Amino acid sequence: MAFLQDPPQLPHPYRGPYRSDLALSALLDRALPAERRAALNVDLEALGNYSQLAWQRATHTSRRKPVLTQWDAWGRRVDRIELTTAWLEGPQLTTRHAVLAAGHEANANARLEQFARVYLYHLASEFYTCPLAMTDGAATALKACGNQKLIERALPHFLSRDAATFWLSGQWMTENTGGSDVGLTETIARQDADGQWRLHGRKWFSSAVVGEAALALARPEGAGTGTAALALFYVETMDGERRKPELVIDRLKDKLGTHELPTAEIHLDGLLAWPLGELAHGVRQVAPMLNVTRTWNAICAVASMARAISLARDYATRRQAFGRPLIEQPLHAQTLADMQAEFEGAFALAFEVAHLLGRVEHDAAAPHEVALLRLLTPLAKLWTGKLAVKLCSEALECFGGAGYIEDTGLPQLLRDAQVYAIWEGTTNVLSLDSLRALAGDTFAALRTAVDDWSADATDTVVVGSIQAALDAASAYLDGHAASRESLEAGARGLAFTLARCASAALLARQASWSSHHGDPYAAAVLRRFVGHGLNRLVAPDANNTALLLG
Ligand code: MFK
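A: This is the predicted complex of the input protein with decanoyl-CoA.
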């Protein structure tokens, strides 16, 4: 019998004493009171079970994409979308395990506990987490705007723990004119004679067209141009069992990845709409939604990294080359350990944002932490988005040729990872957003936080590296304050540096805590992460750029 290679197995990420996801267990042990852990474990074990089941299912069935049927046999417009199994199971899983509702409990740890669930559920959900993120964002934006009528109407559905009453919400912003420059929005809101608003226009990327509601940006008829003149509207998409005819699905997108997610081009032909608040400053009103969906993006990006590393690591114990398992080959072991350290840094940053979000929402944060959350949200989103592509690519390489073969299920990891850097604002848009967030005292807030997180660190090399990189970032900001062009040109390097400094300080906090409990793992992670360098600043040179671009 010819040689047959064992395929990689997915260990249960979160069961009993044999938890394979050390990062998640260590975080929750440190951050949560014991009594909340016990309650949370039930859902985390169930979602871990589901994630193993989904992996088995995905490796034994041919992949499916949603199918749009626009017309029935008799010529009626139906716009019916058939979904994949994981999507059909989504409402049950979400409501039974409070994947969404848990984040809105009256507790400062609510967001941390919610995002632990999201992290375990994400890949098994086949990106059903995308509309969940938007629904969470819509609930958060509705609460922030304080429109009681809409809150009473929509929130019981968005936060339902019963699949029968659960609603998904979309986030309809992107149009042909721009995904980043939302101020170019062409969709018009017109008022009927009886005062009812209706939307007319085309939305170019609708990720939750199967949902029951959406928040949409539109320009009230007669309003001026630009971002400030946009208004934010709430819409519902269903009329009983049937989709409203004023919402037309033009086609589903043919995408590089996230194939199970039915992303659609739609147009709105007089769809009923209700303004959330004033009929202007819609981007300001939708910002709480953006910041929540960006947090989901970061958590889901680290979930992809964890999956890729877990499979690569398992495979390294099963695959022999040059006389021993890959895991015993020094360069392969070195590569896997490097990946693990980078992942742990990203994990620490993404989950700090999640935890901080809950503390800020429940007035349990220190005064400087409000500005800190505003800065860390884009930093976590942009850093994890980029790193997910890098680590998933590296993981595929760990399988050699098998990583390039479709029905191993591995290429999908890389294709899907590419979306994190694009969705919810590209790396450059988020770098510019971090400059927006750095206005005022925010840099000082970051320094205070970094000093707190690394206060118990005993490794002087680590502390010195973090402080040196922060000093360099501060000098960069001061040195380029006079030139907006120059500040923007270097914004990506600045953002990466700040993200790495924050990650290193968070790893230092975890390392101190673990060392007190006799566990040297986190200190080893910290040393390796800092060893990869923290400073990613690039001195912008406009003349050089102009020469390179001809
Ligand atoms: C599985 C993972 C789940 C992930 C979910 C997947 C969903 C995928 C679907 C999508 O991708 S939806 C498309 C997402 N699109 C974007 O994220 C838009 C990208 N563009 C930006 O982020 C721009 O920065 C933005 C449109 C928000 C603003 O650009 P502008 O037109 O230059 O606006 P401006 O004047 O700077 O800001 C308007 C107001 O919003 C200002 O406040 P004021 O009115 O008080 O002056 C800003 O301070 C405020 N603002 C902007 N971004 C903010 C914010 N406030 C708080 N937080 C922010 N992030």
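The pocket of decanoyl-CoA is lined by residues 127, 129-130, 133-134, 171, 173-174, 179-180, 182-183, 207, 227, 281, 283-284, 287, 290-291, 293, 296-297, 300, 423-425, 429, 433, 436 (CB under 6 Å). The first helix runs from residue 22 to 31.
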